[in-house]
Amino acid sequence: QVQLVESGGGLVQAGASLRLSCAASGRSNSRDGMAWVRQAPAKERELVAAIAWSGATHYANSVKGRFTISRDNAKNTTYLQMNTLKPEDTAVYYCAADHRPAYFSRTYYFPNEYDTWGQGTQVTVSS
Question: For the segment 8-22, what is each residue's pLDDT rounded down to a tens digit?
């Protein structure tokens, strides 16, 4: 199956920036829809950002204007640029892939609808 590996998390102060990367390997499809999903302690998983193979994007209201999702299909890599980080952004961030054919897919889904997940990378923002 497709394997996803996240990197780039860390401990930063409020107002700082981080860029997360998600590298795909195995039987990957460059047209897969990709997303970043986060889970904070005692909270449900939240769809943070999603990007279709076409480049169409979707963002959670809580990160709109601060986070940017992008993808480099030639490198099989998806990125999440996170600016002006807030303590409430603290969570484990997961990369997720949707394997539906592109011509049948939407830009984003609920977290439980994604097919393949990475191991997650911890982002901690201190106040």
Answer: 999 999 999 999 999
